[in-house]
Amino acid sequence: MTETKPPSVAVYPGTFDPITNGHVDIIKRALRMFDKVIIVIAVNTQKTPLFSIEERIDMINQCFSSTNDRIQVDITTGLIVDFAVKNDACAIVRGLRAVSDFDYEFQLALMNRKLERRVETVFLMTGFRWIFISSSIIKDAARHGGDISGVVPAHVRNALAEKFSRG
User: Which contacts qualify for 132-135: CB closer than 8 Å, 24 or more apart?
Assistant: First the structure.
């Protein structure tokens, strides 16, 4: 009798305000490694997001309509490692753009490892063409009328244009 292995689940946390092509790249690559990826919108009370939770969930879902059976979007206000355990995840996926990201991410990974040894942190290097982008930089460029095509999905570009056209 062969033993069936439970599906591997990873969580990919972030604020996703908004989701970028860099995020999409990391998620697609994580889907090659794991059976399911839970995209977790981490609510940070110290940040004032441009988009509501509902808008962010909708933008994320629009990016992955063809893989929705392997993608789940959720939110948390607590520790990501606790969320991972509650959702039977074996890993937390983190994207790295530069060495400066690594210092902070390494500290987080070590703390998560101390809190829960069963959950690994998997670092994925951002694709070279996305290395310079962040949600903050994209919002700033869009706010000032910059062309952000190619760095966010078209529906996100439209949502940003709509937000900033309202003043």
Answer: 132/97, 133/20, 133/21, 133/22, 134/20, 134/22, 134/97, 135/15, 135/16, 135/17, 135/18, 135/19, 135/20
